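Q: What structure does this chain adopt?
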Amino acid sequence: MTIERTGVVGAGLMGRDIAGLLANAGYAVTLVDVDADVLAEARAYHEETLEAELRAGGIEVSDRPAERIAYDTDIEALSDAEFVVEAVPERLGLKRGIVADLESVLDGEAIIGTNTSSLTPGDIAAEMAHPERVVLFHFANPALRRDIVEISGDEATDRALDIAHEAAGAIDREPIRLGREYRANGLSRLSASIKCAATWELLEADPAAIDTAARNVGFDRGPLELIDLIGLDVHLATVDNLSEVYGDRYAPPPEVRDRMEELVASDRLGKKSGAGFFEWDGEACLMADPEEPHDIQPILAALVNEGHRLVDDGIADEATVDEILKRGGDSEIGPFDLEEMFGTDALRETLEERHEETGAAVYDAVF
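A:
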């Protein structure tokens, strides 16, 4: 079952890192993007920066990985690949077009992994002749610093799931096999819950007070910094994708949505534009010290609530949900660790109070 030739479609920040991980594992990789300039930037990154970034992520560098990566603007260059990961933006039509193109050029035995964070393999493969060859292969962001790949696929063959599992292990990421496929998988649903709850808390506190409180309880980054990190525009698009299945569970309050859209319109997209909720200096989020941290318990309660939803939906058991957040969020604690620390009754009471005050679905208690 061992694979040798791999590919990645999409040479953006995630795609170039996935290509780098595959190459570092010894696979031959072809990275495809329709934009030649983006490909050139990815090549420069691989040649000049990749090895240092791998080491910074605690990954042992394997003999000049950049030399195992080829670059092309034509998807037909992937015709001999045995495992291909699509890492294009979260637009269903775009992803369906990519997998259709891949199906037309790949060998019938080749497997397609999707790095989707807000759709499902089933959504993306729905129009394919052989949807069973598509499997979730979802990384946390940044891929080189977060030791996790989520794997699932309700229609995927055991072979497809096993090849994805094998590839994740080979690239030094921990494969987490989910019990069922759902939009936003496990990690992105946990992340969406705390981001959503944080936007509701913006009605009462400023971003620095909220995120400082999150850091104080052991999170590597606060939820609003996470929105800045992925981009406010991407976050809002993800919320809209999720609304098709989950309604307004992850939606910000209308006045905060308006504020976020104004930030996007003024090119305050977050880290990638140098400013969003916070100012950024390259990789550094410039967060002023608040007068005092905001009460973090409503956000933690929303996170624990989502953890229970994941278990109820058959996606993972409690221990796996904790592992997903710890690995994917570089967190010291998982949702059920938090429940043990803060107490089930206290967290449920917080949810009930916030739900009565706001009507927000993210606070609608399920435990």
